[in-house]
Design goal:
About 10% of the residues lie in helices and about 35% in strands. It contains 2 helices and 11 strands, in the order αβββαββββββββ.
Length: about 170
């Protein structure tokens, strides 16, 4: 009979082979557009639970804001459908909880507006940032690399497969 210690590594390997593979990437945390900011005496600030998600993958549902002068390679996600005629006001017509979504693979390109609820999955970036057109944002989701259906340039209703149409 072989010694017990010689059988252990084989038994361990066989047991491990029966287990389903573990996910290497955690599921994204849910980000709620209604809870991005909290009021303070000096105005609104990023909510602590949102701040805690800095640099993590998040998933958020919302409507793509329809803007007269939409940013290139990005769009704004809102809780309700919004049509903004900013006329030089930048993002002033957007609701306070609007979230900037950046799509690096479409940088410099116009992203076609989608009227339906969309789901965005990406990395949350927190802090003041100004884009090339001078628009300032305090929160941004940078969309993950594309998975599944590709979207190139205009005419698409999604911003990469990490931002996909969804029905509630």
């Amino acid at each position: 009979m072989p010694p017990l210690h010689a059988a252990l590594p084989i038994a361990f390997l066989l047991a491990a082979a029966d287990e389903p593979p573990k996910r290497l990437v955690a599921d994204p945390a849910r980000l709620d557009l209604a809870r991005l900011y909290v009021p303070t005496e000096r105005g609104a600030r990023v909510a602590p639970e949102v701040e805690a998600l800095r640099g993590r993958r998040v998933r958020v549902l919302g409507f793509m804001a329809r803007m007269e002068e939409a940013p290139r390679g990005a769009f704004y996600l809102t809780r309700r459908p919004v049509e903004s005629e900013e006329g030089g006001a930048g993002t002033a017509d957007l609701p306070p909880g609007a979230l900037r979504v950046e799509v690096p693979r479409l940088a410099g390109q116009e992203i076609a507006w989608a009227p339906d609820v969309i789901e965005v999955v990406g990395t949350l970036d927190v802090g003041r940032a100004e884009d090339a057109e001078g628009r300032v944002s305090w929160l941004r989701v940078v969309v993950d690399e594309a998975r599944g259906r590709a979207t190139e340039g205009t005419g698409s209703s999604t911003a990469g497969s990490s931002a996909t149409k969804s029905r509630r």
